[in-house]
Write a structure and sequence with these properties.
single chain; 83 residues; mainly alpha; 4 helices; 70% helix
Length: 83
């Protein structure tokens, strides 16, 4: 990563968090992501919440979520994404 790089906004970090956790970011994006998390307490907390969500949801059986709850969650995520 070069000494001069454009910093990520919090919104950009949120949009990149999945790729970050999957190891799919370019070297430069990865560096920008980690630089932001190192300076932004809110995004650091968000990243840890995402890691915890992945750990916890990975331990749930497939039928643990009621169809109504799944529908409600999908609607909430669609609404959040379009906001």
């Amino acid at each position: 990563m070069s000494a001069e790089f454009e910093r990520l906004s919090c919104q950009e970090l949120v949009e990149l968090v999945t790729d970050y956790l999957e190891g799919a970011l370019s070297r430069d994006e990865h560096g920008r992501f980690e630089a932001h998390v190192g300076l932004c307490d809110g995004c650091n907390v968000y990243l840890e919440q995402m890691r915890m969500t992945i750990r916890l949801s990975g331990s749930l059986p497939a039928d643990a979520l009621a169809p109504e709850a799944e529908r409600d969650l999908l609607e909430a995520f669609r609404g959040w994404r379009s906001a």
